[in-house]
Amino acid sequence: MDLNSLFTKQADEVMHKTVGEDCELPYEVSDGKVIISEWKHCDKRVLTYRDDKIDENLQDESFRNRVELVDPFMTSLNVGIKLQNLTLEDAGRYFCEGLIQTPDNNREFFAHSFDLFVSEQITQATVLLTVRPNRQHFSRWDAVSLSCSSDDTGSWDIMRDTSTAVESCGVHWGKSKGSVCKVEALVSEDSGLYWCERDGHRSAPVRITVHKDFNPVMDLVPTSVSETPPPSTEAPPPSSQTPPLSQRTLGMALLCHLLVLCPYVVSTALLVSLCRHTRSEDAPPPVTRDYDITGVVTEYDF
């Protein structure tokens, strides 16, 4: 596997620390025996574990006596490391790779990476990065607006880390105006971490991912949280909006049919009435017969 290609990808995990703090970068491998585990920071060897011990001869001077294994005896298969007394120079990409021997005597490769941000002071409560539209996944060529809001009126720089470079808005990407950065057409290379920064103060980062083909959904993790107003108990005002186009079309069609059918219905009713009146005039008068019941005698023989 090409190690350089792995460094250009996004990190598996991200951590934020301040100067002077200790930092743990943990990573557990699958079941087996660790043959070798090597940590690197840029082009420096941070720690190399092989032959069941740390090889200090391969360790860079800047990490001597302040880096150790999370599990020195590898009983938990945690090949992670602990960094002590962080400095600003410790920020950047940390990459771990190595080999394990599985219970069936096969060898398996493992790799993991961290992006470590180290600042003199991080104040996440006073500045907030807002993304509009409010989502973290975008399609190629989508537009996005990033803005920083804080308790003061000062201007903030909007920064990003795309694994290949850490840059502020307006240098090689985006259009910057005050604390607002706009990107008119996103590409896959814009995927990465974005945050606000000024004088050592930094906001919580937001990861933005650009997909080649993506239908946005109501996402994911919102970049800002606002209070939701309580539901209103008042009845909504009557709507005065124009009916939808489909309803208007149906009403017009019904009216046209009525206008077409009305003459036929009226003429038919007139013809039926006229025919009935004509028949009543041509019919002969009714015949009445008088019967004289006085002259009828019924005889009975006894």
UniProtKB/TrEMBL annotation:
Coiled coil: none annotated. It comes from the Eukaryota. This is Immunoglobulin domain-containing protein. Residues 228-241 have a biased composition (Pro residues). Residues 12-119, 133-211 form the Immunoglobulin domain. It comes from Mugilogobius chulae (yellowstripe goby). InterPro entries: Ig-like_dom_sf (IPR036179), Ig-like_fold (IPR013783), Ig_sub (IPR003599). SUPFAM superfamilies: Immunoglobulin (SSF48726). SMART domains: IG (SM00409).
